[in-house]
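Backbones bend. Our protein:
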Amino acid sequence: MENTESNNTLGLNTLSSSGTTKNKKRVGRGIGSGTGKTAGRGHKGQKSRSGGSIARGFEGGQMPLQQRVPKFGFSSRVNRFTKDVNLKDISAMTDVSLDSLKANRIVSKATKKVKIFGIHEMVQPMTVSGVHVTRGAKESIEKAGGTVAAIIARPVKEKFVKTSKKVSEKPAKQAEEATAE
């Protein structure tokens, strides 16, 4: 006599797949298929034709919703590489520069400019170099005995500087008038 319990056990090899998959709809294969002649597209009209697709968002010539709704917001391309750091987040550091902030993962590697802000009571002195600092943060750092190195501005190339002839002529005329009097 066979053990009936062993035949009824559930396993991957005993699962049946009947009814889990449907046959693919074969359109345009005659009347007997159920989707013959018009192939489920109905009679006439744009959607019944080949290539008769309607663009996403198209509203029949009416102004589409995405164009009617007012737009707002702006994302500056400069801000992608500029980050602000709160002074209390870096109060444990003794030497602060762009490289040290990147090394400690406070700012991302793509960052090119950093500005330290905030007023915080510092416990230990801090040396800041190559980083912009707000007035309040500078006072907090110097109060704790730290130093803030001034950032040297890069010189502007002459081809980007506009010079006006009118501006340079006016002071010369005023100087002549002053000497004549």
